[in-house]
Amino acid sequence: MTTPSTSTSTSLSAPPDDLFAARTSGTSIRPTGGIPFLRLCAVELRKQLDTRAGLWLLVAIAIISAGFIALNLFTADAEFNTWTNLTASASTGQLLLLPLIGVMAATSEWSARTALSTFTLEPRRTRVNLAKLASASSLGVAVMFVTLAASAIANVIGLVWLDGDGSWALDWGIVAGTALALILLVWQGVAFGLAFLSTPIAIVAYLALPTVWSILTFTIEALAEPAEWLDMSLTLATLMGGEMTAEDWPKLLVSLLVWVGIPLGIGLWRTARREP
Question: I need a labelling partner for 21 at 20 to 30 A (CA). Which of 3, 104, 180, 228 fits?
Answer without folding.
Answer: 3
